[in-house]
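Field notebook, page 196. I keep forgetting to write these up properly, so this time I am using the form the group agreed on. The chain and the ligand, S-adenosylmethionine, are recorded exactly as supplied. Prediction of the bound pose follows.
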Amino acid sequence: MARSSAVGPPHWPEGVQYSQRYIFHSSVTATTKNFIEKGPKSTKNRGSSRMTVIRRVSEPSHPAFGQFGLFAAKKISAKEHILDYIGDSEPIAGMNSTDFVPGEVHTDERIESNYDLSLHRFESGESVGIDAGRMGNEGRFINDFRGVRAKPNSVFTDYRDSGGQLRMGVYAGGEDIRKGDEILVSYGKGFWKATG
Ligand SMILES: C[S@@+](CC[C@H](N)C(=O)[O-])C[C@H]1O[C@@H](n2cnc3c(N)ncnc32)[C@H](O)[C@@H]1O
């Protein structure tokens, strides 16, 4: 399986593969893969990552002080599509394969990952996630609003792209986001319960 060789944006961390496409973990069945890849096509376009910039969080009062966050590189209009959350897989060059925790579309449990996002839950209970722990795009740097501001300014919403692939888009909320503002979503209470 070919691995993306894309170079990440400024501040992209060493040891994390940058990618803008899905790779499917062996836990994903052919039926589930087909559901993710081939839905009704949408006319919506994928957002450009040039709308955002990765920065180290420099305010000591911020609960993720010293980590990274994703910030608006320009004004983003209310409801505008910012980017998609992507995870990818396969060990990066030099990584010991026994240390490798795949970061991709998967249906197995990833309770150890702080970068795992639910993409879809079937009525059967099967859940499809995108784990950007080892590989992903700018979306992996979006922090939760708790302790930063009163409410999130962005939301995760799934959609089908123009090829019919199921995507987890990040959209601005009901108000414009000013240039320089941090993109903040709600991870949901479940995330914080799981991480303690
Ligand atoms: C998806 S990552 C977000 C990017 C992360 N800040 C980084 O530099 O890689 C999720 C992790 O960010 C941190 N984080 C995000 N939002 C937070 C918040 N509101 N309060 C405390 N930690 C937060 C937690 O460590 C969490 O497990």
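OBSERVATIONS:
- The CA atoms of residues 43 and 162 lie 5 Å apart.
- Residues 30-37 form the longest helix (8 residues).
FOLLOW-UP: compare against the apo run.
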